[in-house]
Amino acid sequence: TLIPMNQDVFVGQKGSLGLSFSGGSSGSGGLTSLSWRDGRFSDWSVQVGEKTYHLHAFLLARASLFFESHMSMEARTKAEGIATRADGSDLTEVLPSSCHSAFEDALDFMYSENQAGFEAPANKALLLLKIADILGISGLFDAMGRRIEASFSDMAPLLLEQYCRFHIPGTDDGAALRQIRDGAVELIVRKFQPFLTNSEMKTALMRLPTNVVAEILDADELLVASEDVIFDFVLARLQYVDSLGASSREPGPSSSGEISCSGSDAGEKLSANAKEADHEPGPESDEYEALWDRIRWAHLSTQKFAQALSLGRNCLKLEVTLKALTARAAGFDLGGAESITSIGSDAGLVQPRKHILPPGVPPPTSTEIDFCFHYAHSDQYACGEALRSQPKRIGDVVLRVLVFPAGTDTGVARGSLSVFLEAVPQPHWPRDWEFANIRYGIACVRWPSGNGETWAAKKKSDLWTFKANRLDRGWHDFLAPGEIHRYLGPDGFVCIRGSLEPECLGRAFLISPQSGHSGHSGTTGSDATGSSASRRSWVPRAAPSERAE
Fold it and tell me: Which of 4, 71, 333, 472 shows its CA 20 to 30 Å from the CA of 375?
């Protein structure tokens, strides 16, 4: 007969029963989880490429529909008395070769006792999604889906590069993977230059197939401060591909290494490699011409265009050079569009990329010059490093915005934003040219932060006479150190607008020198203006040959 026990007494006493396992140290092995790494108690082998894994059928079948189906077929075959090979699966042809390196990560997931806490490296997330899709590992598919969705905006180039590894042109990878691919391309277009500031994302972009890179660079909405960014990227990418050697002209999963070459350095190395190989790269591979054709030559800066021509035919095919020169010529008054189409080229008719402006800001007028640059962090630019906008002709005077993102090297506080308006002398101007008493303004536009806020701008103005020995005028401390972050857009761009006041437009034409022009600034106080070379306001001296300090 069972005697009822008071529950309160039972609960109070069960912690003092002193129960413990006394099986000895040999019994501790039962507490160790099975691992795919040591092959202990394995009963199913899996071949992936040159590697063989000794695994456990129960764990594989529990996690994967593919393995469950394969093992069921093996069991039925044996039950029918048909001889089969040793228990196992060969995934070498089942999984794309680019996914083989991620199979061990998939095993980590299937063997994990805490699959909810499984973390995969970003450079394998989409490869694991593909493996999960093929092998029917629903838990891994869902985990990688959440991982990709959570970090998609930060790792789109990595995801697209992984997709291109296993995608076979002309095949259908399924709706989910197509959506990821198309979404990644769209996001890269909208955040192209910000991605380039991240070395891992830039490397992923370099590794993309030529046709995918061309698709991205074709977009009018490609987010770049200027066409120069596209030129530097194409040049560095071609140099990167060239460094892989003639046996592997197209980047792929085996390509590795940091992309550190850009600008003139990349051009010199690309040209040198081509000369050493004693061949002209263009005719051997269409990818050179395919990417050069994506540059909108008419909107490239003079410095970058000169750099392109200096590459020579070892890097730039004659046909590409002709298109580039035609595009530049179309910028001059040579008879309109018909003068370009008559020679069979529409290169000069390509419009510039989408202008970067805060919402609500009107486009620049004929007397305004816009310049945007990307500012990722305070160490991105060196003190004294200068950026210049494309020049713009207003009347006879040609002006451009001159910016020092980290301040000038003339004693201004480090981290200041220095901005100037600079005259660009033209060959046909007289030796003693000057544009007297020009009232100009410089504004830094602030992006709206939301909640119905509209754009705003910090603007300063001044009166100045531009002449041969006084080319620029502006402010060394236009923004104080740290103030620039108030004017950063959501993608890290800073927008500067220089302008000439309409009242002085009549003085923007070359006329005979007039007496009484002092070039003296009309601004006083702590925001005194100056040239980019000196922090002191300029006072004319007797020596006519004096140059800026």
Answer: 472
Tell me the C-alpha distance between 77 and 80, whole Å.
5
Q: What is the band of 281 on the pLDDT scale with cuts at 50, 70, 90?
A: very low
Per-residue b/e over 65-74, b at no fewer than 16 CB within 10 Å?
A: ebbeebbeeb
CB 254 within 8 A of CB 298: no
Residue 268 has pLDDT above 90, yes or no: no
The candidate with the shortest Cα–Cα distance to 95, out of 165, 197, 5, 146, is 165
Which residue(s) pair with 497 in the sheet? Answer: 370, 443
The answer to whether 194 touches 223, Cβ cutoff 8 Å, is yes
DSSP β-bridge partners for residue 404:
418
Q: Looking at the chain, how many residues does it have?
A: 549
Helix, strand, coil tally for the chain in percent (to 5): 40, 15, 45
CA-CA distances (angstroms) from residue 240 to 80, 130, 199, 270? 58, 28, 14, 8
Question: What is the average per-residue pLDDT within 78-104?
Answer: 86
In this prediction the pTM is 0.79
What local confidence, expressed as pLDDT, does residue 525 receive? 43
Cα end-to-end distance, the chain, whole Å: 110
- Whether 535 has a pLDDT exceeding 90, the answer reads no
Q: At 480, which amino acid appears? A: A
